[in-house]
Backbone:
């Protein structure tokens, strides 16, 4: 799954808006949304919220988790833990990116929030690389990793088959080299023994 597909899934997550219009229930492919009443908070899919926002038909409520202090706590927890921590939202990186692009003027400390989210993502990517490296080094057959986001899985899933293939080739080459070295050592030993036997018979 590529980044655009992950973003597509994230856009279906529900988010709160304050509409500037009134309307009865809207029937969409994924289900009904509304009714809408001007000034009254309601939940809609993220893609619809952005569409309304771009048409100046609503304001988007900033999610509670998209807060500087809360994200700073997440960053510290992620840095201190050797394991992946539970993040405060599904598709957190995609949703925050969409919201920061669409409503950055209404989100406090938007630039700092972007930086913190990048730090969290980079820290988790480093953990994921370390986990994959350990998986190969220890030659595990299975592994379980909790609290990964879909975008994080997508970033590593395509390279795993190639990594397994290269790892297998490396092991095969090492095995062949070891067998050749063992055979050469055995032949040398036999030659020395034959030489000693010949010398003794004289």
Residues:
């Amino acid at each position: 799954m590529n980044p655009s597909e992950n973003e597509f899934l994230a856009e279906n997550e529900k988010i709160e808006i304050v509409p500037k219009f009134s309307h009865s229930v809207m029937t969409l492919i994924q289900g009904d949304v509304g009714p809408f009443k001007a000034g009254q908070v309601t939940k809609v899919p993220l893609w619809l919220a952005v569409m309304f926002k771009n048409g100046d038909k609503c304001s988007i409520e900033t999610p509670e988790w998209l807060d500087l202090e809360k994200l700073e706590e997440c960053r510290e927890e992620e840095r201190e833990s050797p394991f992946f921590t539970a993040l405060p939202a599904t598709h957190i990186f995609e949703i925050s990116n969409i919201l920061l692009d669409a409503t950055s003027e209404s989100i406090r400390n938007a630039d700092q929030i972007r930086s913190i989210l990048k730090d969290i993502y980079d820290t988790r990517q480093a953990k994921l690389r370390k986990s994959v490296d350990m998986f190969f080094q220890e030659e595990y057959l299975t592994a379980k990793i909790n609290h990964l986001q879909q975008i994080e899985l997508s970033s590593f899933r395509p390279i795993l088959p190639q990594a397994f293939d290269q790892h297998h080739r490396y092991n095969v080459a090492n095995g062949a080299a070891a067998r050749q070295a063992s055979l050469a050592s055995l032949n040398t030993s036999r030659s020395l023994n034959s030489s000693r036997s010949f010398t003794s018979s004289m």
Notes: Strands lie at 14-19, 26-28, 31-33, 42-45, 58-60.
